[in-house]
Amino acid sequence: MRNNHEELSGGRRIVLIVDDEEINRELLGAIIGAEFDVVFARDGGEALEIIRRRGASLSLVMLDLLMPGVHGAEVLRVMKEEDILAHLPVIVLTSETSSEVECLRLGASDFISKPYNMPEVILARVRRTIELYEDRSIIRGTERDPVTGLYNIEYFYRYAEQFELRHPDAVTDAAVVDINHFHLINERYGKAKGDAMLRRVGEKILAEVSPLKGMVCRRGSDTFLIYSPHGLDFGRIMENAASTVEGRDGGESAETVHLRMGVYACCDKDMDIERRFDRAKLAADTVRGSYRRRLAYYDESLHDREMYELSLIDDMPRALREGQFRVNYQPKYRISGDEPVLASAEALIRWEHPDMGMIPPGVFVPLFENNGMISSLDSYVWHEAAAQMMRWKRRYGFTVPVSVNVSRIDLYDPGLYGDLRAVLDESGADPSDLMLEVTESAYADDSDQIVRAVTALRDMGFKVEMDDFGSGYSSLSMLSILPVDILKMDMRFIQGGRGGERLLRLIIDIAGQLGIPAVAEGVETAQQVSLLKSLGCDIIQGYYFSKPVSADEFEGFIKERIKQC
Hints:
The protein is of the alpha/beta class and 565 residues long. The chain folds into three domains: 14-143, 3-Layer(aba) Sandwich (Rossmann fold), CATH 3.40.50; 153-305, Alpha-Beta Plaits; 321-564, TIM Barrel (Alpha-Beta Barrel), CATH 3.20.20.450. The protein contains 21 helices and 21 strands.
């Protein structure tokens, strides 16, 4: 039988026996030695030295309670303080049953009474204790997020539901914490430092939540969920959880991480756990992009908005079937010549709800983008716009290219190419006349995937227009790999002052260097038209020429264009 501190091999589990009496050590070693490798310690001090040095290789500690020097209870206390008991079970060896409660409080797993006159029972209890802890370790490995060590979302919801069952009358809060622009942290400092920052934020949140017996999980890449009894100071959590990331060159370029939080306080007990966090997320979204407000609570106004949005979601399939959505067209004019000339149009969706009247696209488009329903709406617009483009061509012998929106969700859909092919087959349109607008922000999510999708669309013959260019998501270096045919400038630049003019000049120069046209939207005044023309902008769009109009009204622009030929 092996002893002392020898490194053991052979793949068997290792058990540490701690007892000041040699005969007891030898007796226990003989009982379990046929099945386990054994390490011995003569007192508590020696045991702690072995545990600290090779605790990861140990499967169990069998610990005598009464020893000279560092006694067994003190060993348990040190193991608990150093968090060793989290992964290493302890069976206490004692003849004093009065000590059992104290040992359990300190983390003991089981007891074996002296004298050791039932070898089969002792061996069975050793086996069972090790099996239980190994099973628990496996469960712990599956329930935890590997980066932060916090619960993953599945187990978090499960434990929250168990808390509800055990404490049906407890008042609870649900909170969502988001890290602002986390993808930029990874991009600037690297994934390792980003992960380190996530761990620090998670640790700080957990430290604030634990005293109230709350729980925390990480959901997705940059979101934390908090579930706890009512009473947390969420403002203090926000302040304390803000972390920093050091740059590649050390602390001089350290950057503070900004958080935003939404809280659904005093949760409705009749609502399922996930729905409670949906409400907290809704509150968090109200402070997205705000530098002054970073904490928001769910209230009745948000509840009314939520009910309104749920109604829109419920009504959307019927609206598609009944043709409640209308496709309007806003003209785009080429301004490079002496007179503006109609160049193309943008298809813009409008919803004429039979009960709620005209619903702004700024309300329903982001809503459908968030829940994935935007794909059905986009497909509807593609079919309508292509068909209308061909009706105008048959009627006037003139083709007006039309831009249609392609959302980020569409670009992840493997059925996208088949749907667009069906649009061309049904309408007879040429793909080069149906221009696909992709917002610049779409390239920030998974630029490789988006680039592959956009490249495939261009290979099909479509022209791709990057919408809202310059809104801050892409670096200039990305332009060398972005497959685009047209740059459409963020309308905020058009309405800015001297700074906006400088940005306009830069973007128009970039488009010129790439050999592609620059489009400006949101143009409202003759002064803006004059400025854009002087800067070399190719095409403009906005209320200066026309608001979005129906297909019938748009025919007036076509007739005027024909007169110019």
